[in-house]
Write a structure and sequence with these properties.
Blueprint (H helix, E strand, L loop, with lengths): L3 E6 L10 E4 L4 E8 L10 H4 L3 E8 L7 E8 L5 E9 L2 E2 L6 E3 L4 E8 L3 E6 L2 E7 L7 E4 L5 E2 L5 E2 L5 E6 L1
Antiparallel strand pairs: 1-15, 2-12, 3-9, 3-15, 4-5, 4-12, 5-6, 6-7, 6-8, 9-10, 10-11, 13-14
Length: about 170
Protein backbone atom coordinates (compact mmCIF):
# COMPACT_ATOMS: atom_id res chain seq x y z
CA UNK A 1 0.00 0.00 0.00
CA UNK A 2 1.20 3.48 -0.82
CA UNK A 3 2.19 5.87 1.94
CA UNK A 4 -0.37 8.63 2.57
CA UNK A 5 0.99 12.11 3.20
CA UNK A 6 -1.56 14.50 4.68
CA UNK A 7 -1.68 17.91 2.99
CA UNK A 8 -3.79 20.51 4.79
CA UNK A 9 -4.48 23.90 3.29
CA UNK A 10 -5.56 26.10 6.18
CA UNK A 11 -8.53 28.43 5.89
CA UNK A 12 -7.41 31.71 4.29
CA UNK A 13 -4.32 30.16 2.66
CA UNK A 14 -3.50 28.97 -0.86
CA UNK A 15 -1.11 26.07 -0.28
CA UNK A 16 0.04 23.57 2.34
CA UNK A 17 3.75 24.14 1.55
CA UNK A 18 6.08 25.96 -0.83
CA UNK A 19 4.78 26.00 -4.42
CA UNK A 20 7.84 24.83 -6.38
CA UNK A 21 9.31 21.64 -5.01
CA UNK A 22 12.17 20.43 -7.18
CA UNK A 23 13.52 20.22 -10.70
CA UNK A 24 11.85 17.59 -12.87
CA UNK A 25 14.11 15.47 -15.09
CA UNK A 26 11.74 12.57 -15.74
CA UNK A 27 9.27 13.08 -18.64
CA UNK A 28 6.52 11.42 -16.55
CA UNK A 29 5.17 13.42 -13.62
CA UNK A 30 2.72 11.30 -11.62
CA UNK A 31 0.91 11.87 -8.35
CA UNK A 32 -1.98 10.16 -6.64
CA UNK A 33 -4.44 11.95 -4.37
CA UNK A 34 -7.23 10.94 -2.03
CA UNK A 35 -9.83 13.71 -1.71
CA UNK A 36 -11.60 13.91 1.66
CA UNK A 37 -15.12 15.30 2.14
CA UNK A 38 -13.72 18.68 3.17
CA UNK A 39 -12.20 19.11 -0.32
CA UNK A 40 -15.60 20.31 -1.46
CA UNK A 41 -16.85 23.89 -1.07
CA UNK A 42 -19.45 26.03 -2.75
CA UNK A 43 -19.60 29.83 -2.64
CA UNK A 44 -22.80 30.23 -4.66
CA UNK A 45 -20.81 32.86 -6.57
CA UNK A 46 -20.22 32.07 -10.27
CA UNK A 47 -17.01 34.12 -10.26
CA UNK A 48 -15.41 31.93 -7.56
CA UNK A 49 -17.21 28.64 -8.26
CA UNK A 50 -16.08 28.68 -11.90
CA UNK A 51 -12.43 29.30 -11.01
CA UNK A 52 -9.83 26.50 -10.99
CA UNK A 53 -7.56 25.54 -8.12
CA UNK A 54 -4.39 23.70 -9.11
CA UNK A 55 -3.21 20.23 -8.14
CA UNK A 56 0.12 19.39 -9.71
CA UNK A 57 2.13 19.91 -12.84
CA UNK A 58 5.28 21.52 -14.12
CA UNK A 59 6.65 24.85 -15.28
CA UNK A 60 9.44 25.03 -17.87
CA UNK A 61 11.69 27.71 -16.42
CA UNK A 62 10.31 30.22 -13.93
CA UNK A 63 7.37 31.99 -15.59
CA UNK A 64 4.21 30.09 -14.59
CA UNK A 65 1.88 32.41 -16.53
CA UNK A 66 3.99 32.18 -19.68
CA UNK A 67 4.16 28.40 -20.01
CA UNK A 68 2.91 25.77 -17.56
CA UNK A 69 1.14 22.42 -17.64
CA UNK A 70 -0.94 21.56 -14.58
CA UNK A 71 -4.13 19.85 -13.51
CA UNK A 72 -6.89 22.14 -12.32
CA UNK A 73 -9.70 21.16 -9.98
CA UNK A 74 -12.92 22.77 -8.84
CA UNK A 75 -16.00 21.62 -6.96
CA UNK A 76 -19.30 21.10 -8.73
CA UNK A 77 -22.67 22.07 -7.32
CA UNK A 78 -23.66 18.37 -6.99
CA UNK A 79 -20.88 17.65 -4.44
CA UNK A 80 -18.24 16.23 -6.77
CA UNK A 81 -14.93 17.52 -8.10
CA UNK A 82 -14.16 18.42 -11.69
CA UNK A 83 -10.64 18.10 -13.12
CA UNK A 84 -9.10 19.52 -16.30
CA UNK A 85 -5.74 20.39 -17.83
CA UNK A 86 -4.73 23.90 -16.77
CA UNK A 87 -2.35 25.19 -19.43
CA UNK A 88 -0.50 28.38 -20.31
CA UNK A 89 1.35 28.56 -23.64
CA UNK A 90 3.00 31.69 -25.05
CA UNK A 91 1.59 33.75 -22.18
CA UNK A 92 -2.03 32.78 -22.91
CA UNK A 93 -4.25 30.53 -20.82
CA UNK A 94 -5.99 27.82 -22.85
CA UNK A 95 -9.69 27.62 -22.08
CA UNK A 96 -12.52 25.14 -22.69
CA UNK A 97 -10.37 22.04 -22.27
CA UNK A 98 -11.97 18.64 -21.58
CA UNK A 99 -13.02 17.94 -18.01
CA UNK A 100 -13.64 14.85 -15.91
CA UNK A 101 -16.03 14.82 -12.96
CA UNK A 102 -15.27 12.42 -10.08
CA UNK A 103 -16.66 11.80 -6.62
CA UNK A 104 -14.90 12.48 -3.34
CA UNK A 105 -13.44 9.87 -1.00
CA UNK A 106 -11.51 7.97 -3.63
CA UNK A 107 -7.94 7.63 -4.86
CA UNK A 108 -7.26 9.32 -8.20
CA UNK A 109 -4.00 9.09 -10.15
CA UNK A 110 -2.82 12.03 -12.28
CA UNK A 111 -0.04 11.95 -14.84
CA UNK A 112 1.42 14.57 -17.14
CA UNK A 113 3.79 13.13 -19.72
CA UNK A 114 6.20 15.51 -21.44
CA UNK A 115 7.16 13.48 -24.53
CA UNK A 116 9.07 14.37 -27.68
CA UNK A 117 6.34 16.21 -29.60
CA UNK A 118 3.32 16.37 -27.26
CA UNK A 119 2.28 16.71 -23.64
CA UNK A 120 -0.31 14.20 -22.44
CA UNK A 121 -2.68 14.55 -19.48
CA UNK A 122 -3.93 11.30 -17.90
CA UNK A 123 -6.43 10.62 -15.13
CA UNK A 124 -6.39 7.06 -13.81
CA UNK A 125 -4.28 5.96 -16.81
CA UNK A 126 -6.77 7.28 -19.40
CA UNK A 127 -5.75 10.15 -21.70
CA UNK A 128 -7.88 13.21 -21.04
CA UNK A 129 -6.03 15.58 -23.36
CA UNK A 130 -2.86 16.05 -25.40
CA UNK A 131 -1.30 19.19 -26.80
CA UNK A 132 1.63 19.79 -29.17
CA UNK A 133 4.75 21.13 -27.49
CA UNK A 134 5.82 24.65 -28.40
CA UNK A 135 9.48 23.94 -27.53
CA UNK A 136 11.77 21.41 -25.90
CA UNK A 137 11.79 21.62 -22.10
CA UNK A 138 15.27 21.41 -20.62
CA UNK A 139 14.65 22.96 -17.19
CA UNK A 140 11.33 22.19 -15.48
CA UNK A 141 10.06 22.60 -11.93
CA UNK A 142 7.16 20.70 -10.40
CA UNK A 143 4.24 22.60 -8.90
CA UNK A 144 1.93 21.52 -6.13
CA UNK A 145 -1.49 22.09 -4.63
CA UNK A 146 -2.78 25.67 -4.83
CA UNK A 147 -6.34 26.42 -3.67
CA UNK A 148 -7.97 29.63 -4.84
CA UNK A 149 -6.77 32.28 -7.20
CA UNK A 150 -7.93 35.45 -8.81
CA UNK A 151 -11.47 35.99 -10.00
CA UNK A 152 -12.54 37.77 -13.17
CA UNK A 153 -13.24 40.81 -11.03
CA UNK A 154 -9.62 40.77 -9.85
CA UNK A 155 -10.30 39.67 -6.26
CA UNK A 156 -8.10 36.97 -4.76
CA UNK A 157 -9.76 34.06 -2.95
CA UNK A 158 -8.29 31.38 -0.70
CA UNK A 159 -9.37 28.15 1.01
CA UNK A 160 -12.80 28.81 2.56
CA UNK A 161 -12.08 26.26 5.33
CA UNK A 162 -9.32 23.77 6.19
CA UNK A 163 -9.00 21.41 3.20
CA UNK A 164 -7.30 18.02 3.58
CA UNK A 165 -5.94 16.11 0.60
CA UNK A 166 -3.87 12.96 0.99
CA UNK A 167 -1.01 12.62 -1.46
CA UNK A 168 -0.13 8.98 -2.08
CA UNK A 169 3.54 8.24 -2.58
Amino acid sequence: MAKKVKRTIKKGHHRPYFQFTKPVFNPFLERGYFFTENCWWWFNDPDKDGDWSKLMGFVPGFRIHNESYRFGMRPTKDGQLEFAPYIYQNGKRLLDLPTKKLSLKKYIKFNISDLEDKIYFYIDDIILYSIPKIKKHTLKFSTNIYIGGGTRSGKDWTAPHDITIYELK
